[in-house]
Amino acid sequence: MAGTDRAVAMEALARAGEAVCFAGDQYRYAEVGRRAAALRHPNDPPAVELTACLVTGVAATLRGDHERAGPALRRAVVLGGRLTGPALTPTALTCAAAAGLVVAVDGAAHRLAERAVGLARERGELSMLSRALELRAVAEYWLGRHEAAAETSRDGLRVARAAGQFNCANVHLGMLAVLAAVRADRESSLRRIREIGPTPTPGSRPHALAGWALAVLDLVDGRHAEAAARLASLARLGTGRGQVLVQVMATPYLVEAAAHLPHRPAATAALAAFDRWASSTASPLRRALSARCHALLAPRGGVEAEREFRTALRLHPTEDGAFERARTELLFGQELRRSRRPRDARGHLHQARETFTLLGADRWAEQATAELRAAGESVGPPDLPAARLLTGQQLRIAQLVAEGATNREIAARMFLSTRTVDHHLRNVFHRLGIRSRTELARTFAAEPHAGLASDR
Predict the structure, then answer these.
(1) Are the C-beta atoms of residues 113 and 146 closer than 8 Å to each other?
(2) Which PANTHER family does this chain map to (predicted)?
């Protein structure tokens, strides 16, 4: 193929690389990288150069050479943003989006994946649509937009099933299981794992995502040894086997579980790999998570733990990532309370509780409430108006319902599917503790200023 059409050959190598990553055979990516390097020419057209940069960057990342990986991956992102004419394809855009995720430029990765989704729909390229939606969901996860990531994954699941792409469907199911587990929604997470089936291929991406989800549920329930063991098994560091990139994403949970155990070699090794990656990026979130991990592994009640927690809070982005910041506030509050500093703990715990309540993360809000009570504070239900309990899109839908609009009318006005409106409305009812559209109208009638936040 290389002798007749280098562009097609390079694209084939990129797809081969994605296949070995999906299967958990990352050690084979080195050969993909060598073949791509042999195909490169100094004056390659943008689409060919973009694909070559992706393969080169991923190969370097997998062998831990972030100094070489970063420039190649960033170049792929830049080229993806410049594509025009025949070079502008869903395949090229997904390659650029994948590069953006590996180098941790989440906003750019999301924009590229969004363009890939739109272009794939427009051209009817269903084979690429599911992959583009997968990348968009991962970007939304890193941006802290968990509801959007879940909606994207549900869309991807429908597309993959309709196209007969069962491996892709299982990836979306795995992502939905992780997102539900992160929100401590056990029932939804286990249901998605059951949908993957009883025997996902060991080492494959769906298998790893299901393991990550189960580990988070273990962590929520205080089964720290089980959670750590599951997460440590996602990849065998140094061998190129298993889901290395999934384990990197899950490392903050591995460290949190291991912090409760006397022996932590797997977590220490995983954190070292995470640190090398995080420090090679310009991502404040990755560095915040790294600092939080070091705080958790530091001696309890010591200066190092407090310093690392404060570093994490300083680094956490203010616009995106409210959930992860709230998790850091909760963990810092726990550390301070257990170090017999309840007064210092309360401010962090209050902040965590309010954020979790606003995000609808009820189980985490309950944990923050329990910690506040343990810190000697009498805590009632959060005194928050309806408008503050809802996201911007949920609030707009709720207002239209309160005004008497049907779901179909709302979908047309907001350029959404009726399925999406139904989903958001169920979440509105849950967050506000109501059961009907009539109750919703009464709630908004009792809060005349709720509409002030409609453009959030």
Answers:
(1) no
(2) TRANSCRIPTIONAL REGULATORY PROTEIN DESR, TWO-COMPONENT RESPONSE REGULATOR
344 exposure class (CB count in 10 Å sphere: 0-12, 13-18, 19+): middle
The reported pLDDT for the residue numbered 423 is: 83
- For residue 447, what pLDDT is reported? 61
Taking residue 360's Cβ as centre, other Cβ atoms within 10 Å add up to: 19
pLDDT digits 0-9 by tens, 220-231:
999 999 999 999
Buried b (16+ CB within 10 A) or exposed e, 127-136: ebbbbbbbbb
> What is the length of the chain?
456
Minimal CA–CA distance to 281: which of 12, 151, 99, 25?
A: 99
Q: How far is it, in rounded angstroms, from Cα 354 to Cα 356?
A: 6
Those residues with Cβ within 8 angstroms of residue 377's Cβ, 6 or more apart along the chain or in another chain: 346
What DSSP element (H or E) covers 136? helix 126-142
Distance CA 311, CA 181 (A): 27
Angle at 402 between CA 322 and CA 395, to 5 degrees: 10
Identical fold, 1-156 and 386-453: no
Residue 253: φ, ψ to 5°? -75, -40
Whole-number Å distance between alpha carbons of 76 and 82: 10
Q: Check if the beta carbon of residue 210 is closer than 8 Å to that of residue 177.
A: yes
Structure-block tokens of residue 371: 């910690």
The structural domains of the chain, with segments of one domain joined by +, span 1-156, 386-453
Q: What is the CA radius of gyration of the chain?
A: 23
| CB of 26 closer than 8 Å to CB of 70 | no
Q: Strands 241-242 and 235-236, how do they pair?
A: antiparallel
> What pLDDT does 385 receive?
63
Choose the weakest-confidence range: 62-71, 267-276, 405-414: 405-414
**What CATH number is given for 1-156 in this structure?**
1.25.40.10
Query: Given the structure tokens 């395949």, which residue do they identify?
Result: 91
Q: Which CATH class name applies to 386-453?
A: mainly alpha
Q: Are 113 and 105 in contact, with CB atoms under 8 Å apart?
A: no
pTM of the model: 0.83
Pseudo-torsion of CA 172, 178, 180, 183, nearest 10°?
-150
Per-residue pLDDT tens over the stretch 236-250: 877 778 898 899 999
pLDDT > 80? residue 391: no
Q: Which of 34, 66, 70 is nearest to 52 (CA)?
A: 34
pLDDT tens digits, 369-383? 999 999 888 776 555
